[in-house]
Amino acid sequence: ACSGDLVGFQNIAGAAGRAAGAAGNASRGGNGGSPSAGQTSAAGSGMAPATGGSSGNTSTAGAGGTDAAGGSGGEGAAGDDCAPGMTMTCWETPQGTSLGDVPANVLGACKLGTRTCASDGKLGPCQGALAPASEDTCDAGDDANCNGVPNEGCSCVKGSTRPCGSDVGACQFGTQTCQDQEWGDCLGQIGPQPRDTCDAGNDANCNGLPNEGCACVIGAVANCGNCGTQQCVKGGTWGPCTDEGECAPNEVQDETESCGLCGSQAIRRKCTSDCQWADWTDYPSSSCQDQGVCEPGAVVYQTVDCGKCGLQNQQRTCTETCAWADWQDTGTCSEQRPPCAQP
């Protein structure tokens, strides 16, 4: 059935129903009122004992008056009578089958139909009315059941996409597309590798821990040894220690040195912060110990008695250990001195 707008339309389209039928006289009932589009005609009144005809309605002519050949009832107003070109909403099939109660709010895919008044003043069939389906489809935004909730019951909407996979570390999201209410394969993603590389910041296994399992990061430089450096090489291992200094910072070295006449004295030197030895210094509170008696290479001379009142020149030399060697004669015993000339 069409909506209540139909009656309203008929009232607007048709002129008001004509006046009631004329009163019957003593021998004849009055005629029912003549029809007019959209309004029921009025009944005629007859004078007693005659009776006027009954009123007509939209589908049935009024009954004739009674007694003394009363007049015939008026014809009812035709429901489809209208002004050509005017339209009205409807809620039925083109064959006139009702689609049920007219919805208060037309939602989703549902639509009210339209009837158009033809040139002959008759309303055409209801065109374009779309009633609720039993369920929505999964096409984007579809609300075929017209409850205001699109894609109800769908696990995903056809053609929609979503990210998939991971974007942790070196991994990158892919994309899944909905087809037949199922999410497709994850396309375009970069997935995790079995292990990280040792390039700086690499998290190839995508667990949020870069350079996992590496002893060092390639290209890194570290101190080593005595102020040396080493560089991390391919595979995440440290290369050889290079450019080392002479000693470890604050290292102390004690020695003795010669002093005086073949003596010795304690000395000390300390390693600086840049791994170089500082100059030797005397050991605190030490002095030259165990000195000899002469300077190596020194020579002294003496003359001693020899023979019978003779004289002998002698010399001795200081050894490398600062000790005097034995006296050695030089030359021969001199002639006897005059006081010894007499026997």
Termini separation comes to: 189 Å
Could you say which structural class the secondary elements and strand pairing correspond to? mainly beta
**Major β-sheet strand ordering:** 3-4-5
Which outline best applies? Answer: rod-shaped
Strand content: 15-25%
Number of strands: 14
One letter per element, helices H and strands E, the order comes to HEEEEEEEEEEEEEE
Q: Kindly report the average pLDDT value.
A: 79
The main β sheet shows up as: 3 strands, antiparallel
The stretches of 5 or more residues where confidence is low (pLDDT under 50) are 1-62, 67-79
Summarize the structure.
The chain is mainly β.
Please give a structural write-up.
The chain is an all-beta fold. The protein is 3% helix and 20% strand. It has one helix and 14 strands. It has one helix spanning 5-13, and strands spanning 87-90, 113-116, 161-164, 174-179, 182-183, 221-224, 228-233, 237-238, 252-259, 263-270, 281-282, 299-306, 310-317, 328-330. The protein has a three-stranded antiparallel beta sheet, with no helix packed on it. The protein has a three-stranded antiparallel beta sheet with strand order 6-7-8, with no helix packed on it. A hairpin with a 3-residue loop joins strand 6 (221-224) and strand 7. The longest helix is centred in the N-terminal third of the chain and has 9 residues, at 5-13. The radius of gyration is 67 Å and the shape is rod-shaped. The chain starts with a helix and ends in a 13-residue tail after the last strand. Mean pLDDT is 79; it is low at 1-62 and 67-79.
